[in-house]
Amino acid sequence: MKDYYELLGVGQNASSEEIKKAFRERAKQLHPDIRGEKGAEEMRKLLAAYKVLCDRNRRFDYDRAYVRFAGKYQFDYRKFLKEKNDPESHAKLIFFELLHMEEDEALSIWLDQGGLNFHLDYYLDREDWMDCCFLLAEELDKRNRCYEAFVLLLGLVREERRKPYFKHFMEDVENFLKELVRNRLRPAVDPESYLECMEALLDLGFSPRDEARWMRSIAETLVLLGELGNAEKVLRQALKKDPALPNIIRLRRKLSV
Q: Where do the domains of the chain lie, and which CATH numbers do they carry?
């Protein structure tokens, strides 16, 4: 299991400039155009390492918890958190396990603590909470727990709109959310829950083009539920947002739009 210094290929005493240089060089090697999907996943891990090691306070906490000394850990932070056995320690342990690529253990703890009902934001700093939620969403999606991944990503986008943190990385977060909605969410939930998800998505302020496609999905779901009048209204609204909305021939016939 590699630690963050190994991922970046730098020593534990590396300066901020050395860390930045190592990140840039490694990022070029991991570009998706070169390494494909595997490269994208490795890039996310590399970015997580960079964000911790380039922040003085977070690097100090990481070193205290993880860096080896004379072949042994200086301090077994994992054991310390497990022994405390309180909600705050559970939250910190989930984040710790995710950062150290123990994803199954992190998910197990999160689910044991209530999953979506376990409010990580109560116990983690805002930045740690946002990073933790993104990493959790990735792992949940890999395990076909699409609804839970969607809820976490929805909360991240809403919080980012309120006060930016991810900034340039936010495009990746939003693309992850849109790709999940486009390809995996609908068969993972019942129609009523799907409608709730789509309506929540529309409140976030995406582009008219994106919103029109989500409204098309809402209209299709309303047709399945027999709510043709509401489906017609939604489809007309979608066409106002994007008159060139694709894949609606059958839907227009059903609704006489």
A: 1-75 (1.10.287.110)
